[in-house]
Write a structure and sequence with these properties.
With about 270 residues, this protein is an alpha/beta fold. The chain has seven helices and seven strands; from the N terminus they run βαβαβαβαβαβααβ. It binds NADP nicotinamide-adenine-dinucleotide phosphate and D-gluconic acid.
């Protein structure tokens, strides 16, 4: 083993939806390991916000406006990246949304929108980058899965269906393209303190913890919410040659949630 196997020097990494939050933290980790960072987001304001945040960290990132559900737009963006930055060596499918609505109150349109962004999006972006990865002789795809790739809970039926599907898309990309030296793995974050989960951590009017906040702290052996930055090193591992023999795996970075039956009643 060489520590240099963990380096990403000269590699081009596309992280979707990476203006802030988990995508941003992962992109910063990949940059620290030597990768050139490319990201997209859904509108120009978010891309500008991302560009400013990368600049503040001295990371020369390239930002594009692109909706991951728009197949034509994604293909155009990938062609532009190949011309302006280089062939994509590492793809992180991070862009995603959640809708917390009880299933029987959810419209089919709302359900479809979550599936479209969280599952069809990674399919569309992956198929746009795989042909050049095959030509180049290697590629790394990392899909950002979830606790909901394994567990259900009230109000997140569409999200759980999408993230469960994303776990299986991960295994299928591994099965179908492993022979071309492409590794496709997932990261399953636990509960991470980002704007996406802010409503679950809001203080109650009397100043006490949100009941869901207290629930997650009790359900996590680590006893806390995790930080987005804690996903960066696992992402560097899965993006690097150090993980060349790891394929179709979901690496849960969850502070132990999936291992734990839950706190016993006192
Ligand atoms: P987030 O708000 O989900 O960040 C995702 C980014 O993707 C946002 O910038 C978002 O833009 C963008 N986006 C949404 N739809 C898009 C589209 N169609 N095309 C391109 N970009 C789009 O926050 P996050 O918490 O950092 O989550 C990142 C990923 O991790 C998601 O896939 C999420 O499901 C997953 N995840 C999060 C947690 C957690 O605890 N936070 C845990 C496990 C997994 P907008 O701001 O306009 O929505
Ligand atoms: C929720 C949360 C989760 C997390 C994450 C867990 O409402 O339960 O938003 O789904 O964001 O995906 O891994």
């Amino acid at each position: 083993m060489k520590m240099s196997d963990f380096r990403l020097d000269g590699k081009v990494a596309l992280v979707t939806g990476a203006s802030y939050g988990i995508g941003f933290a992962i992109a910063c980790g990949l940059a620290e390991a030597g990768a050139k960072i490319v990201f997209n987001d859904i509108n120009q304001d978010l891309v500008n916000k991302g560009l400013a945040a990368y600049k503040e960290k001295n990371i020369p990132a390239h930002g594009y406006v692109c909706d991951v559900t728009d197949e034509e737009g994604v293909n155009e963006m990938v062609a532009k990246i190949e011309k302006e930055v280089g062939v994509i060596d590492i793809l992180v499918n991070n862009a995603g949304i959640i809708k917390r609505i009880p299933m029987c109150d959810m419209t089919a349109q709302q359900f479809r929108q979550v599936i479209d962004i969280d599952l069809n999006g990674p399919f569309i972006v992956s198929k746009a980058v795989i042909p050049s990865m095959i030509k180049k002789g290697h590629g790394k795809i990392i899909n950002i899965c979830s606790m909901m790739s394994e567990l259900g809970r009230e109000t997140v039926s569409a999200y759980a269906a999408a993230k469960g599907g994303l776990k299986m898309l991960t295994r299928n990309i591994c099965s179908e393209y492993g022979e071309y030296n492409i590794q496709c793995n997932g990261i399953g974050p636990g509960y991470i303190a980002t704007p996406q989960t802010a409503p679950l951590r809001e203080k109650q009017p009397d100043g006490s913890r949100h009941p869901f906040d207290a629930f997650i702290v009790a359900k996590t052996p680590a006893g806390r919410w995790l930080e987005a930055e804690e996903l960066a090193a696992p992402a560097v591992f899965l993006a690097s040659d150090a993980s060349n023999a790891v394929n179709g795996h979901i690496l849960y970075v969850d502070g132990g949630i999936l291992a734990y039956i839950g706190r016993q009643p006192k």
